[in-house]
Design a protein that fits this description.
The complex is a heterotrimer. By secondary structure, chain A is an alpha/beta fold. Chain A has helices spanning 3-7, 20-35, 56-65, 83-96, 144-152, 157-170, 196-199, 275-285, and strands spanning 41-42, 71-76, 99-100, 109-113, 126-130, 181-183, 187-189, 208-213, 218-222, 228-230, 258-262, 268-272, 297-298, 301-302. The longest helix of chain A has 16 residues, at 20-35. The chains are: A alpha/beta, B alpha+beta, C alpha/beta. Chains A and C meet through helix 2, strand 1, helix 4 and helix 5 of A and helix 1 of C.
Chain lengths: 303, 358, 180
Amino acid sequence: MSLSDLTGRWKAFSYGFLDASAKRELRRKMIKAVAVPGCQMPYASREVPIARGWGTGGLQVTLTLVKPSSTVKVIDQGADDSVNAASIRRFLSRVSGAAETWDTLDATLIQSRHRIPEEKLTRDQILILQVPNPEPLRGVEPNMSTARQMHADADYGRMWLQLYEQMVRSGRVMLGASYPAMVNGRHVMTPSPIPRWDVKKLHMAEHLTILSAGREKRIFAVPPYTRVEPLVFDDVPYKVEDHAHLTCARSGVTGYFMNEIPQEDGSAGYEVSDSHFGIKAIDARDGGTPTVGQTWYRNGELA
Amino acid sequence: MAYVATRGGERAIEQSERLYRAQMGQIDAARVAEIEKALPALVDRVMGEASLYAPDLAALALAQSGGDLYEALLLLRAWRTTQPRLQIAEVVAPDAGFTHRRISAAFKDIPGGQILGPTLDYAHRLLATEVLEDQPYAPPAVEPAAKPAPATHPSLAEWQRAQGLVTTPEAAPVPRDEIPDLTREPLLFPAKRAHTLQSLARADTGGTLALGYSAMRGYGNSHPTVNELRLSEVEVMVAHPDGRRFSAGRVKTSQAEVVTTKGKGELRLGFTATLGWNEVKCISAATLDLNAPGAEKNSPVEEEFFLYHTEPVESSGFCIHFKLPHYVTFQSSLDNLRAAKSAQAEQAQPTDKEEETA
Amino acid sequence: MLATPLPDAEEIRDNATFDAVLGALSRPGTLRDLPEPGPLCIALALLDRECRVHAGDETLSARIAATGAALVPAHEADHVFMAADSAEALAVIAGLDTGSHLYPDEGATLIVPARIGAGQALQLTGPGIKSVERICLDGIHPGFWALRARLCAYPRGIEVLIHDGARLLALPRSTQVTEV
């Protein structure tokens, strides 16, 4: 054997950027993440050519799964054309040759920051959520070692106490996005900073969701048909954002998660947050015939 | 098609990158070579934090990023992580290698002598403004000593060990090829000793200084005395596939060993070594290492606290990520706030602290 | 600046293998196709020098050693390739690492051959399964299922990948298996 045998032929970079060893580690960790839903599995988390905190965890998962026949959709805050989503999508297609899409229905891999599309995902799709902080207990316990022990002991008393105190002080649970949920009856998980509107889409879903925090080096998953139950008290129901009655000023759709746009006259306007869903609605209104998938919500209610 | 109006995303990011790069103009090999020659301290700092010893690549990264240290680091780390692992080099003992500088603050003189070597410690910090008036500054020539200092110097801690002042920590029974590697495994706590030293080796210089300084000012339990500070060049010894050992080259390394007398009848040591010559980082990081045993949870000298918070790529990345839009999370919290406000219209009470919306 | 690289044969095989493994684990009991028959492609997609592996078969052992993985006794391994068709095999499987409550990920992955579609009928429930999944497996010792249940004291446990030629199914520790 010679040194050149060991080094192999020089390549500017590997297929899908990550080297084979990084992909193998991610595969091993994804296996364990799927096997213990909602449990944070530590992984080495390699540096990738975008900054930490900008989706490096999601990117490593997507880069491991992607192949030339994949079709990737990348969204940030629900929008495909958001600058960082555009940057990640361009990087993905550049290093993998995968097709790019804005249409949820066409995608095989959907990498997202902070939203789950409004059209239902199917069994042939994988949702990859970027996670800034994988630890749902961080608010009550910043120390990672202690928090890990609390998960090991299923000791979620302080989490419940926090919710209870909010109820007493504010009359409701004041958690906005990242609403913690019990997964498979055992592990409390952050669903990543998706709005409460989206958390229930993970419950008994048809698709696989992989959540990955690159900076914090943790990966976890929600397999299809897995219980994902937001932490609530029996007598206080879970409340999603009060958006059911809002209408998108651009597309005219009602009953989906909206972005609030402050207006010059002091009022507020609304635009549907799932940007491509809005584009389809505009297309339909203008006489086009876009294929619109079944949605999780109908008339503002979870169907 | 109102949404189409906002489709400028791709063009916008491309043009914004061009604007940034326009500041630096064309980058060529000569510029990279000049950076490598003119800025050795900066190149060393970047190599240490990148954990990649390659002065030309470090200089290239600095040229490409326009001197943004965190960007340069990320370029190098992202390049490094895709490189194949061919060999694990032989272990280098602290006292091995060609020593350029070795000082101790613990004793007036030490076996092998105090070797000042290259330093600005005693320079008067006067800005050479005449250079701007076309009077180039040429450093005066170094006058060689009558008798050259020996190439290697014994470790002071060895002398202390012989005196019974320090106990040699037991080496973990790990074969060389299986030394835990932070770039291949996650950092978990309590951290493996190898992971701690690797983390400190690639920690942010400014970050270790800030936290190390807090310990020096009294937020730790031990005051450091510099037992030994050493700048060396060491051989990277590897094995050819046919079995022959050979040197793949020399790397500059710095090491700091700090000591406290606050032990149970003996001295306790803190240690950090890194690639390149970077004294502030090694002394600060060794001070953190010194203070870690028995540190209070969530204090700056607790291992989990300082290792997480001095990781330069992670901390800088997370900091700049707050520039990304967060309007979905903001919207979600706004909804709560309004609902709580209207529910409490009659009985005003303070709401809970704002939650993290990353 | 950089041209889009093409996947080489290994990348294509490893990617397809993991597609099958991930799909099988996400929907326990459903069948997936491996890109080639046998457990070797699973080993190559998952293992390298970071791993500690035990393989019952000598040829497979040699191929695995070439990935850089350390060959160790089964109870020290994170990946174990062996048949589960005898009482002796079960004694070995009984000693597998099931991880801890602190680190459930340290539970081993067991890769076993079997005949899928014949033999013992099993009923599966748990994450990844809408209501109930039914499978039949032959070539697995009858004591295996009680042993697996003991090892899978959730969230501790082992993952079982079952291959029959190029067909694969998987039983993550979260799956409850009932013999019917």
